[in-house]
Design brief:
five-stranded mixed beta sheet; binds zinc ion; 670 residues; single chain; five-stranded antiparallel beta sheet
């Protein structure tokens, strides 16, 4: 990455900017920092609530890390996160703060430039389409749609705010409106149109349009209640039609969305990138398609990354420090219109990890307002599970049976909804109550059933401490008096293999490993600072801790089997070819470990400390090998030959361990 030939001009600009910025000063604009060590500062973390500072900034290495919530990164990451903005925006903002003019936008390849162009054009298509749908809603043919929206209690202001429109029954009006401005290839990419052809015939000959297969015979859109129109339509007898198509002009495109109320879906910046269309056909037969139809995935729309209404809601979510999560767009609009502006919708499908992370950027507290008990609630359960895994503070708002948020607000008013919000229940309290209702008996059998019902939910919680607390709460609330059962519950709740590893890996890292990791990291430090060590220039006099550690670790593979093995491997792999050491670790866990080691750099790295650390690792290796050998010798039926070799190795290992100098690779048997 440091070889200048491979750097694009924009990479260069970011690097220059990063070098000019002092992360301590930039972070200092947001966090009150105090000097905490030779090179680090600390303060209260801006990303999680805390009373004692666990947020640290490394002045020479220019990164931050929070030991409370695990956030870490460089100056760009900090700005991005604290301002809730994208990376390019963070670059721009930092340039502004430093008073550096931005270079003109460049693309690294023609393909990238073309993709960017397509995305821009698709955004334009959506602006025009949204305006078209809104216009249609006002026209006479939009009467039914207006009636529907009125029936749902939406006033003109709300309709305008959400840009709601109407897609007419004709398949061609939208196409004709857009064709004047946009290329047909682009319209095909927009997700707004269908056409009848198999994929081979996609190399469309422009020109001659064939309108005979009108918009009525939609056979797509039949994939259930909330479908994505992401498959091309197929005619019933596709075999013969393919043959025919080969000799006929390209199939005409026509609107996917017909006779539907159109809800635009905005990206985080509020730009329309897709639509949901709600059918107005009384019967949901095949011809009318599903009740709700969503845009397919396009270059500008990825369903798994978008939350409905986040563009309108994000400010309120930040201010109120929680969000309200409802299921459908209609619910979302009603709740919003009633004055609860921090509401977003999952659009009837299960949350994705990306969506949970996206939401988490604004607040980690969420009130979930859909009934987790409803039939077909698998998606709901997945959503809640994911939020638990992302460490959200979740409350459940349960409305009376038969009421969704939309209906509730229309019947009972917004004050009643506000009151219900106040009475929402902690998710785990809710789960415990439910388990008690499902297994009501007071005997130990139903208690065990209730516990087993709850366990999978608890095991999703990443924090062991929280799980421990939950186990205790459950045994109290379920009135578990058997010590054995209580112990079993506690064990099941706390043993969650992945987390256990995470919790203990850091503690298992020895002082020697820490020294060597610091030594490895020092290679990149010297490069970042621009002052290369003279060792690398040729003279051999100055001590280079990085080189010494690299040599010892690599030639003897001393890191194998250590708690820090994967981190050491990442550092060794990178060698001296990087300027950002915090970018090297491959897992969160390793990043955290590296941050914690670097933040506690106190004593200087000398030849003696590095040498001492290498010796310590050799000793660890020898002991482990000795244990293995002794274990092997215990095994019954060991052939005499092997036994002799092992005995010999045992002797030499023991001798090596006695050697105070532990000479290089002393005990390593061949
Ligand atoms: Zn934090």
């Amino acid at each position: 990455m440091t070889s200048t030939s491979t750097l694009t001009s924009s990479d260069n600009f970011k690097e220059t900017l990063k070098q000019q910025a002092d992360i301590v000063r930039i972070v200092g604009d947001y966090v009150k920092l105090k000097k905490a060590g030779a090179q680090n500062f600390s303060g209260l973390c801006p990303f999680h609530a805390e009373k004692t500072p666990s947020f640290s900034v490394h002045a020479t290495r220019q990164f931050y890390h929070c030991f409370g919530c695990g956030e870490s990164g460089d100056v760009f990451a900090f700005i991005q996160k604290v301002e809730n903005i994208t990376f390019p925006e963070a670059v721009r903002l930092l340039a502004q703060k430093l008073g550096v003019p931005m270079p003109k936008v460049g693309f690294s390849s023609p393909a990238e430039a073309r993709d960017a162009q397509v995305r821009m054009a698709l955004l334009d298509v959506h602006v025009r389409a949204a305006a078209f749908f809104q216009e249609c809603l006002r026209r006479p043919e939009g009467a039914n749609a207006r009636q529907y929206l009125k029936g749902r209690g939406l006033d003109d202001e709300t309709i305008a705010r959400f840009g709601i429109g109407y897609a007419p029954d004709s398949g061609f009006l939208l196409r004709d409106a857009l064709r004047r401005e946009f290329d047909e290839e682009l319209l095909r990419e927009s997700g707004l149109f269908s056409w009848k052809e198999s994929s081979q015939e996609k190399q469309v000959l422009r020109g001659a349009q064939n309108d005979k297969n009108g918009g009525g015979s939609a056979q797509d859109d039949k994939a259930g209640e909330n479908a994505n129109a992401n498959h091309e339509e197929r005619t019933a007898n596709s075999g013969s039609s393919q043959l025919a198509a080969r000799f006929s002009p390209p199939a005409a495109i026509y609107s996917k969305f017909r006779n539907r109320v159109m809800f635009p879906i905005g990206n985080e910046q509020g730009k329309v990138i897709a639509f949901t269309g709600r059918t107005l056909s009384a019967s949901t037969d095949e011809k009318a398609g599903p009740k709700y139809l969503n845009s397919p995935e396009t270059p500008i729309y990825s369903k798994s990354r978008v939350l409905f209404n986040l563009d309108h809601a994000k400010e309120a979510i930040r201010k109120l420090e929680y969000s309200i999560l409802v299921e459908g767009q209609m619910d979302c609009i009603s709740v919003y219109a009633a004055g609860f502006h921090n509401v977003i919708a999952s659009s009837g499908t299960a949350f994705t990890e990306l969506q949970a992370k996206l939401l988490g950027r604004f607040s980690k507290k969420v009130v979930v307002n859909f009934d987790p008990d409803t039939a077909g609630a698998r998606a709901t359960e997945r959503t809640l599970g994911l939020l638990v895994e992302e460490e959200f503070n979740i409350q459940v708002l349960t409305l009376e049976t038969g009421f969704d948020p939309d209906l509730f607000i229309r019947r009972k008013g917004k004050d009643a909804y506000a009151a219900a919000l106040k009475h929402s229940q902690q998710y785990f309290d809710y789960l415990i109550d439910r388990a008690r209702a499902m297994f009501p008996g007071r005997n130990s059998e139903s208690k065990v059933k209730a516990v087993n019902h709850l366990l999978p939910h608890i095991q999703r919680v990443p924090s062991r401490i929280v799980r421990d607390g939950l186990a205790l709460e459950i045994s109290q609330k379920l009135g578990i008096d058997s010590a054995v059962l209580r112990q079993e519950l506690k064990h099941a709740a706390t043993s969650r293999s992945a987390t256990q590893v995470r919790a203990t890996a850091e503690a298992q890292v020895t002082g020697a490993e820490r020294v060597l990791i610091r030594a490895l990291a020092s290679a990149t430090q010297m490069q970042a600072g621009g002052e290369r060590s003279s060792t690398r220039e040729g003279t051999d006099e100055e001590f280079d801790p990085a080189r010494q550690a690299q040599y010892a670790l690599q030639s003897e593979q001393l890191y194998e089997g250590l708690a820090s093995q994967s981190l050491m491997e990442s550092l060794l792999e990178a060698g001296t070819e990087t300027s950002d050491v915090m970018a090297l670790p491959k897992t969160e866990q390793d990043r955290r470990l590296l941050a914690s080691i670097l933040m506690h750099e106190e004593e200087e790295l000398t030849p003696e400390t590095v040498e001492g650390a290498v010796r310590a690792l050799r000793r660890i290796y020898l002991r482990r090998r000795l244990e293995e050998v002794q274990g092997a010798l215990q095994r019954p039926g060991l052939p005499l030959e092997n036994r002799q070799a092992l005995l010999q190795e045992k002797v030499s290992l023991k001798r090596a361990l006695m050697d105070p100098g532990l000479g290089e690779a002393a005990g390593r048997a061949s």
